[in-house]
Each structure stands twice: as structure tokens, then as C-alpha cells.
């Protein structure tokens, strides 16, 4: 085992820690918990199905544990002078070799069980067709040695300061996120699926019936506010717990080899590395509720971070935090002061378009509630009238806020765009990273003289929008932002127009 972070490559084959066998057996906890719930629901009298389930668990345990033992014995890894190699396989042996120069990031992840056993999972991201390499069950010193060795040989050296670090006072922003409501419904859905798979009807359980009887005995005008309040309280507590678990001891800095490194996590620790050469920009996100509380988040726009879900998790640079901290980190990551750059405002037709859409949504909701009121009772009909009257000013304000957020700017190195009201996003991407442009119109936007310009890049979410541009300036902006990409299209368009102009000159 390595007890020091020696970056010198070694050519001897090494294997994961033997404690990984305990991790392979940890899956047994879930079915045993399900069987325990079944026993509680049946009053301690399991039926034939329960005994069959226990027998199946025992057989599966023997098979899975045996496969885990074979996998552990056949997994090997080593770092040579120019490559990183892994041997794996149970029935079929497989060896993967990746040149060190093609390694883009090395992430360390450890869930609660791995942390309890002193183990870590190493995820190695590579360029090209090599994809992601995953190595489970390394002891912490071995994982740290492997990460240091791979990164030192994958990028040149450099030293930069700490950009941001954990601040306990930031937890006040946790309830100002989607999870205050969405998290509650996600958890309830998961619990329902678990109980349903165990043959338990959730609505027949004592606590569920007690809650239903308590709320059902009251009028709707009292039941609905109490239910929303209960969901908000539970969601706020869940959001706080999730925030602390995800971002405890958070820290983002420039590692020695010029790599942006993000470390965070309480029970599950995460360490993500983004090579400076793969960094293509940054995003500042301000959801409506978080923006009202003076907060924002920041993320990186980088290539080589995996699929859409992996990219979303690995690119996060800052949790919900004070807006000034997010704006400062946005600039520090890019190395330029861009967040305060004045943006070019979009045409007033974009405002009118948003106002019409907002009023249309209010009208549809009012019609639906009014129809339900005519069918089931006058209470919903009165509610439709009140909701329509109250939401028209709010909808128009949201439309105006969305228009104020619209804007773009062409920096010598970056293309900056901003849009959105429920989530106002400011994105800066390198102009030399744009590989294609897409011009999108609809019958309504064409009538208003507007076009949405999409910049395609191999980094981040791979598409970034500049919404509702003036149609006459969109082509020029794309040609200036990414010279040469649409030049052939412009030349062909000019050639098609030239004969018509010559014919008109001959007629005159």
C-alpha cells in the first residue's frame, strides 16, 4: 500500500483493497429491509411468498458474493511511463490502456459505506473513444497516489490560489431551491414504489390513514394551505440536509498541474478535476426564488465530463450562495472580468411575445378551472375568477422580467448571453469552441422579425441559446462570433441574390 503521495509511476500490477468484498455484499441490506417491512405489515406471519423471497435472497447472495470475489481477484491496474492500464473481467478478461496524455480528469468518490471502510472509487475521464474508466475499492492513500500520478503526467504544472470554500452561513439558501417542493414528491414517490413492490398498500397503513382523516375532516380552504405548509416545512428540512450532505467542506481551487479541482461532501465525498485546457466557459444561474433571496450558483462549461447527467454533477462549482460570491467565482474561473459586461438589449418585439405567452397561460388555467367549476361546483368557478384576476399582474411582471434578462455581448474571446426568468442564466463560452450555429424560427417569431441563435459546442450541455435576436442581425453576429463557420452559406446566399439584382438593373 502507498503511504505517501509519491507521483513516480510504477510498472507493477496492483489490485483493489480486499475490503471491497464487504462492499459487494452490501446489496443484501435492501432486500432484508424489504422483508422486514413485509414481516411488520403481516404481523410476524410470513407467507409462502415471503419464504420464497428469503430463499431467493440467499441463493443470490451466494452467487453475487462469489462473482465479487472473482472480480476482485482478477482486477488489476498499473501506471507505466506513458499509459494507465486496467485489467478486469469475470468470464471474459479485458485489458484497457489509456495514454496519460489523453486523461482529462480524475475524480474521487466515496459513499458512506466506502468511507466507513476507508475506500474510494476512482473515475478517470479520457478524450476520444476511451470513455470513462472506473476503479472501485482503492484504499484512500492508493487513490490519492493514483490521482496525483495521473494528473501530474497528463498536464503541465502550475499554481493558483483557492477560489471559494465552504461557509456554514450559506445553508440559509438551501430552502430557496427546487427541492423544497420537488424533493418531497420525489421521496414520496420512491417510498410508494418500495412499499408497493413489497406488496404493501401505503394508504392502508395507520399513519397514512390518520393524516388523510385529519385533512379530510376540514374544508378545502383550510386543508390546502395546511397541506402546502406541511410540504414546505418537510421540504425545507430535506433541502437543508441535502445541501449539507452535498456541499460540506466544499472547496474549489487550482491544483498544482493547472487543474480546476472541486472537493465536497459529508457522507459521500467527491473530488472532481477539470483540466484547464478543457475549460470552455462558465455559467451563472439565478433561479427565481434563489434570486429573490440574493443568491446564485455557478458551474463550469467544460468538455470531457461524461454524459448529460455526469456533466451536470461534475461541472457544479458553487452551491446556492450569495450572488456576489457566485459572480466573483464566475470571473475567477474565466480569468477575466466579464460578469458586469453591459449586454446588448433585444428588440421590443421579444417583450410583446413574452407578454402574449404569459396572458395565454393565465387564460388557459382560468378556462380549465372555470370548466371544472361548472361541472363540479361553484367553489372552483369562483376560484377561477379570483386566480385569473390575481395572476394577470404577476404574469405580466414575469414577462417583463424575462425581457429584461435578455441580452448578449461579443467579447474578443467569449460570447456572453443571458436569458430566463424562472432561471436566469448568464453564460460565457469561448468563441473558438463554437463548432456550429443553428437559426431557429417559428411562424410567430418570423412575423415578429425574431430569430433564436444556438451555438453548438463540444462542452457542457453542448448547445447555448441567444433567444429572440433581431433576424437581420443574427447572421452577422454568428459570422463575427465564429468566423468561417457560416461563410459558405453567406456566399451562396449572396450568389442567389445577385442574378435578381442584375435583372432589375437591366429592366431599368
Helix content: 40-55%
> How much β-strand is present in the residues?
15-25%
Spans with pLDDT under 50 lasting ≥5 residues? 1-9, 156-160, 500-508
Total number of strands = 19
User: Largest sheet, if any?
Assistant: 7 strands, antiparallel
**Number of H- or I-type helical stretches:** 16
Morphology: globular
Mind sketching the topology for me?
Elements: H1 20-24, H2 29-41, H3 48-74, E1 76-79, E2 83-88, E3 94-99, E4 103-110, H4 112-117, E5 119-126, E6 132-139, H5 140-152, E7 162-165, H6 182-197, H7 206-216, H8 220-247, E8 251-254, E9 259-264, E10 269-275, E11 279-287, H9 288-292, E12 295-302, H10 308-314, E13 316-322, H11 323-334, H12 348-376, H13 378-405, E14 407-410, E15 414-419, E16 423-430, E17 434-440, H14 443-448, E18 450-457, E19 463-470, H15 471-481, H16 487-507
Antiparallel strand pairs: 1-2, 2-3, 4-5, 4-10, 5-6, 7-8, 8-9, 9-10, 11-12, 11-16, 12-13, 14-15, 15-16, 17-18, 18-19
Helix pairs in contact: 2-3, 12-13
Q: What descriptive keywords fit this protein?
A:
508 residues, alpha+beta, 19 strands
Please give a structural write-up.
The chain has 508 residues and is of the alpha+beta class. Among the domains are: 78 residues, no CATH class; 57 residues. It has 16 helices and 19 strands. The strands form four sheets. A seven-stranded antiparallel beta sheet has the order 6-5-4-10-9-8-7, sandwiched between helices. A six-stranded antiparallel beta sheet has the order 13-12-11-16-15-14. Strands 1-2-3 form a three-stranded antiparallel beta sheet. Helix 2 runs antiparallel to helix 3 and helix 12 runs antiparallel to helix 13. The radius of gyration is 29 Å and the shape is globular. The N terminus and C terminus are likely disordered.
Amino acid at each position: 500500500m502507498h503511504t505517501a503521495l509519491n507521483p513516480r509511476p510504477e510498472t507493477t500490477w496492483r489490485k483493489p483493497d480486499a475490503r471491497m468484498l464487504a462492499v459487494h455484499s452490501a446489496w443484501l441490506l435492501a432486500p432484508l429491509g424489504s422483508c422486514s417491512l413485509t414481516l411488520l405489515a403481516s404481523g410476524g406471519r410470513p407467507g409462502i411468498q415471503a419464504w420464497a423471497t428469503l430463499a431467493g435472497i440467499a441463493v443470490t447472495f451466494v452467487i453475487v458474493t462469489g462473482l465479487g470475489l472473482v472480480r476482485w481477484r482478477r482486477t488489476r491496474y498499473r501506471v507505466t511511463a506513458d499509459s494507465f492500464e486496467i485489467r478486469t473481467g469475470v468470464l471474459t478478461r479485458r485489458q484497457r490502456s489509456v495514454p496519460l496524455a489523453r486523461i482529462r480528469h480524475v475524480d474521487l468518490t466515496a459513499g458512506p459505506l466506502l468511507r466507513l471502510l476507508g475506500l474510494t472509487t476512482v473515475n478517470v475521464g479520457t478524450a476520444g473513444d476511451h470513455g470513462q474508466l472506473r476503479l472501485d475499492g482503492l484504499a484512500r492513500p492508493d487513490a490519492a497516489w493514483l490521482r496525483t500520478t495521473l494528473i501530474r503526467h497528463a498536464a503541465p504544472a502550475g499554481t493558483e490560489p483557492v477560489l471559494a470554500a465552504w461557509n456554514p452561513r450559506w445553508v440559509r439558501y438551501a430552502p430557496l431551491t427546487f427541492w423544497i417542493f420537488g424533493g418531497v414528491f420525489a421521496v414520496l414517490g420512491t417510498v410508494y414504489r418500495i412499499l408497493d413492490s413489497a406488496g404493501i398498500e401505503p394508504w392502508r397503513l395507520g399513519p397514512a390513514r390518520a393524516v388523510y382523516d385529519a385533512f379530510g375532516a376540514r374544508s378545502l380552504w383550510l386543508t390546502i394551505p395546511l397541506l402546502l405548509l406541511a410540504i414546505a416545512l418537510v421540504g425545507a428540512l430535506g433541502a437543508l440536509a441535502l445541501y449539507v450532505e452535498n456541499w460540506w467542506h466544499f472547496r474549489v481551487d487550482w491544483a498544482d498541474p493547472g487543474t480546476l479541482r472541486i472537493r465536497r461532501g459529508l457522507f459521500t465525498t467527491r473530488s472532481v478535476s477539470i483540466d484547464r485546457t478543457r475549460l470552455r466557459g462558465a455559467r451563472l444561474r439565478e433561479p427565481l426564488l434563489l434570486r429573490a433571496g440574493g443568491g446564485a450558483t455557478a458551474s463550469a462549461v467544460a468538455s470531457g465530463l461524461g454524459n448529460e447527467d455526469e456533466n451536470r454533477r461534475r461541472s457544479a462549482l458553487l452551491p446556492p450562495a450569495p450572488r456576489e460570491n457566485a459572480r466573483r467565482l464566475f470571473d475567477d474561473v474565466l480569468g477575466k472580468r466579464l460578469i458586469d459586461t453591459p449586454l446588448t438589449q433585444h428588440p421590443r418585439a421579444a417583450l410583446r411575445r413574452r407578454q402574449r405567452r404569459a396572458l395565454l397561460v393565465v387564460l388557459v388555467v382560468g378556462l380549465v378551472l372555470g370548466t371544472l367549476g361548472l361541472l363540479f361546483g361553484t367553489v372552483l368557478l369562483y376560484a377561477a375568477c379570483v386566480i385569473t384576476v390575481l395572476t394577470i399582474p404577476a404574469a405580466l411582471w414575469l414577462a417583463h422580467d424575462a425581457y429584461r434578462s435578455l441580452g448578449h455581448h461579443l467579447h474578443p474571446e467569449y460570447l456572453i448571453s443571458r436569458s430566463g426568468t424562472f432561471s436566469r442564466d448568464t453564460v460565457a463560452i469561448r468563441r473558438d469552441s463554437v463548432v456550429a450555429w443553428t437559426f431557429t424560427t417559428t411562424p410567430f417569431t418570423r412575423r415578429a422579425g425574431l430569430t433564436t441563435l444556438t451555438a453548438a459546442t463540444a462542452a457542457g450541455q453542448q448547445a447555448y441559446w441567444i433567444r429572440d435576436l433581431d433576424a437581420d442581425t443574427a447572421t452577422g453576429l454568428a459570422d463575427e462570433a465564429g468566423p468561417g463557420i457560416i461563410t459558405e452559406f453567406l456566399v451562396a446566399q449572396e450568389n442567389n441574390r445577385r442574378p435578381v439584382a442584375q435583372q432589375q438593373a437591366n429592366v431599368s
